User: Fold this.
Amino acid sequence: MGQIEADFQRSADTHLIAAPVPALVDAGIDLYFKDESTHPTGSLKHRLARSLFLYALCNGWIAEGTTVVEASSGSTAVSEAYFARLLGLPFVAVMPKGTSAEKLAQIEFYGGKCHFVERAAAVNEEARALAKASSGHYLDQFTFAERATDWRGNNNIAESMIAQMKHERFPIPKWVVVGAGTGGTSATIGRYLRYHRLPSRLCVADPEGSVYARYHATGDKGLLSDGSRIEGIGRPQVELSFVRSVVCRMHTVSNLESIAAMHVLGDILGRRVGPSTGTNFASVLTLATEMRARGEKGSILSLICDAGDRYRVSYYDEAWVRTHMGDIGPARSALLAKLT
Ligand SMILES: Cc1ncc(COP(=O)(O)O)c(C=O)c1O
Assistant:
């Protein structure tokens, strides 16, 4: 516990970045992004990893020498490998084949081992089996993300970004827009907004192929799909940490829109962001366009989930995008039109 506390004390909070779009500013609409890429392990998952380790320690599930196992598309495993190293524990990450080489290198940099499965949907059971075989502990982000994070406050992501809006012209956002992988981030933000009786509404940006938008509409927990092509968000099945009842609106974003938006936001901010941030931005622009059409003023808050340099050989490689996703040209033009 002391090690994690000391690490927390050494860490600073992440920045809130204003993303001024002149035409929207003139219409009374301000956009902000909480930059979670500046955490020591480069993504929003740094917070979750800390919470999951504290949760497992305080439940007595982790002790000296315990092998820690996780099922992750990458970002969570990178952050958990960091905390496992901090505590001197062996760490194994179970993930689908084809996860970006950059993320694998980062897990191994923190001393973690990578274990691959063919089917994305098999990661959970494989991680559970590995933990059992090694008498270790399966951190299980998909089950515990919503439980391990303190949604009332304690400097969670919602408390931090709302506090950072204090001196803005619209300090209480109209909308908060986030994606959902485990659903832990959206659950924390949704609960926080309600607990503090804020009028802000929560919108989840869901990539095409994910089950979450349909689950939100139907409540059918048994839904299955081929899953998402945007790393970190969207799921092929309904995960336990996705809390449907705190989400005011779901917005489905096509892969081409997500990648086009990733580039457009990168140009506005002057640096590269990750694909799941592109999905967020596409939904932010849809909401901003609707507000503008209604003459509604206010701020919209979203997240930079991780940085773009992790995706040099995939989403930032034009040939890779054309082969795996298609032509982002029309989607890019449609997004640029929303900025004028
Ligand atoms: C890059 C990225 N963005 C967004 C998310 C979604 O976060 P959450 O799992 O809290 O829903 C993840 C989750 O893994 C991620 O890796």
